[in-house]
Amino acid sequence: MRLAAGGGAQAVSMVAVARAVGAPSGSLYHRFSGRPELLARVWLAALASFEEAWWKVAASAPDPGVVAAAPVRWARKEPDLARVLAAHRRVDFVG
Asked: pLDDT tens across 47-72, in order?
């Protein structure tokens, strides 16, 4: 996620990810069919994290101000995920 947050989709290659996690690059192909799937999963993981946090607050907070502040709290807690969603375009990751 840190690669995508810092450099967008163009920074995410199978080799770069493997290097970042200390694994052989070929091992990534056992988990992902290729770079397009890896990129899509990065974007979807960031989006799912945001939506889960926001809906949890929206469903339980009676104060609209608390709900409105939820994205900021999430972004502070998950800066890499927030950067992926805010600084980069969905089409760069999902197509």
From this structure: 999 999 999 999 998 899 999 999 99
**How many CA within 13 A on the CB side of residue 60?**
7
Interior angle at CA 64, CA 60 and CA 65, nearest 5: 110
Q: Which amino acid is at 46?
A: A
DSSP secondary structure letter of residue 29: T
> Total structural domains in the chain?
1
pTM: 0.83
Give the CATH number of the domain where residue 67 resides: 1.10.357.10
Residue among 84, 6, 7 nearest 50 (CA) = 84
Contact between residue 38 and residue 93 where contact means Cβ atoms under 8 Å apart: no
Q: What is the pLDDT of residues 1-28, one digit of tens each?
A: 788 888 888 889 999 999 999 999 889 9
Residue 49 sits in which domain range?
Answer: 2-94
